[in-house]
Amino acid sequence: MPTQEQMKAVLQAYVDGFDAADPGAVSGLFADDAVIEDPVGTPPIQGRAAIDEFYVNAMAVGTKLTLDGPIRGSHGDKAAMAFTVEVPAMGMRIHAIDVMTFGEDGKVTRMEALWGPDDIEQ
Amino acid sequence: MPTQEQMKAVLQAYVDGFDAADPGAVSGLFADDAVIEDPVGTPPIQGRAAIDEFYVNAMAVGTKLTLDGPIRGSHGDKAAMAFTVEVPAMGMRIHAIDVMTFGEDGKVTRMEALWGPDDIEQ
Question: Could you give the dihedral angle defined by the CA atoms of residues A111, A116, A117 and A119, in that order, rounded to the nearest 10 degrees?
């Protein structure tokens, strides 16, 4: 199992990848068969091609993330962070929390994004 | 399924119950057979008696919670919040994120608390 430090570094790299507008840097944090449910309650996407496309699309609209406080670990294989998503092309801001589950190799195997219709500011 | 507003009100009531030092107000937010994994990676507790005891013990040391930003919903049956736990009796502060899953009746059926050894400040 990855250490707390390793998991938190992956979540930080996720934020930094958006900042650098580098979709490959973000999708590369995920295992090839990872599942992303973003947001929770919508159909999950799975697998390398879908994940790559997801982040290319997310960054095509200039999306940036700002952490709302420190990244949290756990006593197991999960870590989480609260952040604010800015989507300038849509004049939109979203308050979100992402929970990531890790595999033995330190890659993210599952991400659940918590944000609802009420968490969007226009 | 409860609405976004209903789920968020439950999470706010969770914080408020600590503020009021009212363990029954907090444990009453959970279904009788709810599962709590706090923190993730430790053995879960389950059921009314264990949940009641958990919050009596948590509040016996004066624990208070402060939200780090707005409570987040989802497009499904989950909501989450990032907060800071103050445990004055232990001179301790913990940065945590709780994810709660809801049943049809609006009671919490599962809570996962994300915080690790590194998220504790002494």
Answer: -100
Host H or E run for residue B56: helix B48-60
Q: Which two structure tokens, joined as six digits, stand for B91? A: 């001179």
> What CATH number does the domain containing B81 carry?
3.10.450.50
Give the residue on A whose Cα is nearest the Cα of B94. Answer: A72
Contacts of residue A70 in chain B, CB cutoff 8 Å? 95, 119
Domain residue limits at A77 = 4-117
Task: Convert the pLDDT of each residue in A15-60 to its tens digit.
Answer: 999 999 999 999 999 999 999 999 999 999 999 999 999 999 999 9
pTM equals 0.97
In a domain, B122, yes or no: no
Q: How many domains does the structure of chain A reveal?
A: 1
Contact B114 A99 (CB under 8 A): yes
* Residue B38 designated active-site: yes
Question: What value of ipTM does the predicted structure carry?
Answer: 0.96
